[in-house]
Write a structure and sequence with these properties.
4-stranded parallel beta sheet; GMP Synthetase, Chain A, domain 3; 32% helix; 495 residues
Length: 495
C-alpha cells in the first residue's frame, strides 16, 4: 500500500469537504489530491530522487508529502532552524531533490546538485497548474519518508519510514472518516518532526479539517482556535507553557470549541499539566509518547487516565500523571537491562518497542534486533498496570561508584522546590566516584534565590545522599530544541 491512498479515500468519499486551511486559503480534499498529482508529475519530469521541504508548515508540506508518495520517492522535511553548516550537510545527503522553500539558502549552503528548486508559492502554483484527477496507483516504493533525527546527543541519523510503517500506525489508531465535518485540528508543530507528518496523515484519514499555523505564536494560536472553531490540537510542553502565559497576561481567548488537546515531544512538567487541567476543565488531555523511528505514537495517557490521576488519593494512581500511559494495542513495549533481559515492573532500564509501525532502520544501518524489537535508547520503567514512565535517554544515566542514577528522578525532586522553575541534571567527572550528578536550575520570577546548600539539602531530604548534586549552578534558562527536548549536551558545557 501507499500513504497516498489515504488522500484518495478522502477525495473519493467527500471530495468537496474542506481538508486544509492555511493563511486564509481553503483546500478541499479533491483539490489537494489533484495538486499532489500535479506535483508528482513535476517530480517525475525532473527525475527527482527526493522531495525535500525547507520551509515552515503550509499547504506545500501537505502537497509535498503526498506528491512524493505518488511519485514513489521519499519525502524529506528538513529543520530550517539549523545553522547553515549543519543544514548544508543534510542537504548534501539528499542530492537530486526537488527542494521546496528557501531556495536562496539552498543555493548558498549546498555543495551537491539538486534537480529543481522552487519557492513555496512557485511549487504550490505549479502543482495546481499541472493538477489532475487521476486515481492513485499502488507503488512498489518502500520508503515514504526520510527524517533526520534531532541529534540531541549525536549527529543526526536518517531514519527511513516505509509506507507500511506509517500505515501501520494510522490504520491501527485512527478510524476512517471518524471526524464530523465541523471538526478541525490546529497543526502548529514543525513539518520536519514526525508529529507534524502523523498529524497530516491521521487527520486526512479521519477527514478532519487541518488548520495550519506556519510558525507557532501563543496569541495567534489562541486566536485561531476561536476563529476556526478548532476542536483538536497538539502541542509540545513549551508551547502549552507559552499559551498559559499569554492567557495569564490578559490575552483574550475563547476555547469553547476545543475538545481535545494532545501533548508530547518532550517531558511535561508536572505543575504545568496540573495547571492546564484546572484552567481547561472541559478539554480532554492526552499525553502521546513516540519517536521518529516508531512512526509517531506508541503509548498514550488517555483523558480518563488524566482525570483519574488528578482526583485519586491513591499515590500509585496519582503518580501516573507523570507517565506517558500504556502501549497502543498495535505495539509491544518492554523494559530491558544492559544485557537485553526483560525487567519486571518498577525496574529501570532501556525501552524496547516492537510493532508494524516500528521502523528502527536508518539509511546508514538497522537498529532492530533479530526478532524485530527496536532499542529506543530511552530509559524508563513500567508500573504493575503497564503505565510507562520515562527517565530520559539511556545515555544520560549517571554511573556513580557503580550505581546507576536517573537524572529525571533528581530533576523531578528539584522541580517541587518552591523557588525552582526548571532544572537539568547531568553527569560530571568525579575523582572519588567516577561520575556524579550536577544540576543547572532556573529560579522562578520573583522568588528568592536559594543557596547551593539549601538545594542540596532539599534533594538529600527526599532522596538518598548519592543523588545530591556535587555542583549546582543558577542559569537564566535551559536549552531546548523546537520540540521541547532538553539538550543535555549543551547543559554539559555549563560545567
Amino acid at each position: 500500500m501507499n500513504i497516498a491512498l489515504l488522500l484518495q479515500m478522502a477525495a473519493d468519499t467527500q471530495g468537496d469537504r474542506i481538508g486544509l486551511v492555511c493563511d486564509g486559503r481553503e483546500w478541499s480534499y479533491s483539490s489537494l489530491l489533484n495538486a499532489a498529482h500535479g506535483a508528482a508529475d513535476l517530480v517525475n519530469e525532473y527525475e527527482c530522487e527526493y522531495v525535500t521541504l525547507l520551509d515552515e508548515s503550509s499547504e506545500a508540506a501537505f502537497i509535498g508529502l503526498f506528491a512524493a508518495a505518488l511519485a514513489g520517492v521519499p519525502y524529506v522535511p528538513l529543520n530550517y532552524r539549523l545553522a547553515d553548516e549543519d543544514l548544508g550537510a543534510l542537504l548534501d545527503r539528499v542530492e537530486n531533490s526537488l527542494v521546496i522553500g528557501d531556495i536562496g539558502r539552498t543555493k548558498r549552503i549546498s555543495t551537491r546538485k539538486q534537480s529543481l528548486l522552487l519557492a513555496r508559492i512557485e511549487f504550490v502554483n505549479e502543482a495546481v497548474l499541472r493538477g489532475s484527477n487521476k486515481q492513485v496507483e499502488d507503488s512498489e516504493a518502500e520508503v515514504a519518508a526520510l527524517i533526520f533525527t534531532s541529534g540531541t546527543t549525536a549527529a543526526p541519523k536518517a531514519a527511513l519510514l516505509k509506507h507500511s510503517n506509517l500505515l501501520g500506525y494510522i490504520l491501527g489508531s485512527v478510524e476512517f472518516m471518524s471526524a464530523d465535518e465541523q471538526d478541525a485540528i490546529l497543526v502548529c508543530v514543525p513539518p520536519y518532526h514526525i508529529a507534524g507528518i502523523s498529524a497530516l496523515l491521521s487527520s486526512c484519514y479521519a477527514m478532519r479539517r487541518i488548520v495550519m499555523l506556519p510558525a507557532f505564536d501563543p496569541k495567534t494560536w489562541l486566536d485561531l482556535v476561536a476563529q476556526e472553531n478548532v476542536s483538536n490540537a497538539f502541542v509540545v510542553p513549551t508551547m502549552l507553557s507559552r499559551i498559559i502565559e499569554a492567557i495569564e497576561s490578559g490575552h483574550s481567548y475563547n476555547l469553547s470549541s476545543l475538545r481535545a488537546l494532545a501533548y508530547g515531544g518532550g517531558k511535561m512538567p508536572l505543575e504545568l499539566i496540573k495547571k492546564a487541567l484546572v484552567l481547561f476543565p472541559s478539554v480532554n488531555f492526552t499525553n502521546a509518547y513516540g519517536l521518529t523511528e516508531t512512526s509517531s505514537t506508541v503509548a498514550l495517557l488517555t483523558p480518563d487516565d488524566h482525570r483519574a490521576a488528578i482526583s485519586s488519593e491513591d499515590p500509585k494512581v496519582s503518580a501516573r500523571l507523570a507517565s506517558v500511559g500504556k502501549a497502543l494495542p498495535s505495539v509491544e513495549i518492554e523494559i530491558r537491562d544492559d544485557e537485553g533481559n526483560k525487567l519486571p515492573p518498577g525496574e529501570r532500564g532501556e525501552i524496547y518497542i516492537r510493532g508494524e509501525q516500528v521502523s528502527g532502520t536508518y539509511k546508514e544501518k538497522s537498529s532492530l534486533t533479530a526478532d524485530g524489537w527496536f532499542p529506543t535508547r530511552d530509559a524508563g520503567y513500567m508500573d504493575e498496570e503497564g503505565y510507562l514512565f520515562l527517565d530520559g535517554r539511556a545515555d544520560d544515566v549517571i554511573v556513580r561508584g557503580g550505581e546507576n542514577l536517573s537524572p529525571g528522578e533528581i530533576e523531578d525532586v528539584l522541580l517541587t522546590h518552591d523557588a525552582i522553575a526548571d532544572a537539568a541534571v547531568i553527569a560530571i567527572p568525579s575523582a572519588e566516584w567516577g561520575e556524579a550528578p550536577a544540576a543547572a536550575i532556573v529560579i522562578k520570577a520573583g522568588a528568592e534565590e536559594p543557596s547551593v546548600e539549601d538545594v542540596c539539602a532539599f534533594v538529600k531530604h527526599r532522596l538518598r545522599s548519592s543523588r545530591v548534586p556535587e555542583q549546582v549552578i543558577m542559569v537564566s534558562e535551559l536549552p531546548y530544541n523546537d520540540m521541547g527536548k532538553l539538550l543535555r549536551r549543551v547543559v554539559k558545557t555549563y560545567f
